[in-house]
Design the sequence.
């Protein structure tokens, strides 16, 4: 059966909703799937946000995954394996035509500092308990609030770049992907829709203007205008060739019961 009209943008919105539920709910165990989505989105539309916004969001989520393993008391072999997966020892930084030398330098420096910090902890220093407490505070709720704000801004830019939402079209696509499913029965979609201001394409002003201060991690007005214009163009080009490869798995991201009991990812 052929995909209904609007399947590509709808699939992105479905994945965004699931990822937003994970980040908003601090479900660290599913952060790797959110990272997969962000990497795919960056490939699809590199103009949505600046390089440093994308990379610092991804770095923060990856760091939180590693820190959570440490605080859970997982074996150091598992912690170091996760560290290697997320922060290769080669210090590799994804090259991006939009990145400045200063961006690359800061990203690499932050990666190296974090890796050194984790490796020092793995050597069981005498003051390990106090170091772990410092780590817990450094990557606690204020840190996650900043990550949530970065992610929300990213999704705001995506919403601006996608075609205007049509509720019936969204339902038609969901029914095609998962017969019998309803947009209104999905907690993930309902929450995301409320936060994004559906059915209006513009996102609500209050979350976008949050009082959380996170310095140069936050988009300025010039960047938002640039990202909206270039992001829309890149998404339109991507839609013509790539959306069909993403659609089949996105329906699995949408739980219909309590989010604490059901994983939004397959």
Sequence:
């Amino acid at each position: 059966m052929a995909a209904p009209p609007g399947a590509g943008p709808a699939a992105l919105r479905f994945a965004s909703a699931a990822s937003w539920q994970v980040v908003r709910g601090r479900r660290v165990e599913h952060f790797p799937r959110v990272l997969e989505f962000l990497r795919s989105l960056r490939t699809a539309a590199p103009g949505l946000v600046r390089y440093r916004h994308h990379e610092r969001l991804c770095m923060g989520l990856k760091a939180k995954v590693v820190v959570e393993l440490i605080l859970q008391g997982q074996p150091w072999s598992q912690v170091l394996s996760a560290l290697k997966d997320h922060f290769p020892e080669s210090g590799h930084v994804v090259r991006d035509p939009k990145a400045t030398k200063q961006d690359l330098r800061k990203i690499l420096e932050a990666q190296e500092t974090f890796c050194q910090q984790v490796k020092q902890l793995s050597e069981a220093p005498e003051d390990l308990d106090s170091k772990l407490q410092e780590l817990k505070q450094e990557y606690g709720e204020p840190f996650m609030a900043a990550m949530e704000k970065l992610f929300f801004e990213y999704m705001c830019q995506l919403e601006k770049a996608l075609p205007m939402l049509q509720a019936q079209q969204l339902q038609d696509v969901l029914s095609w992907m998962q017969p019998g499913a309803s947009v209104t029965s999905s907690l993930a979609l309902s929450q995301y829709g409320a936060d994004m201001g559906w059915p209006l394409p513009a996102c609500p002003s209050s979350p976008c203007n949050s009082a959380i201060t996170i310095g140069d991690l936050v988009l300025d007005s010039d960047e938002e205008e640039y990202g909206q214009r270039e992001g829309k163009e890149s998404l339109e080009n991507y839609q013509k060739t790539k959306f069909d490869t993403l659609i089949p798995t996105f329906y699995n991201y949408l739980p219909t019961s309590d989010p604490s009991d059901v994983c939004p990812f397959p």
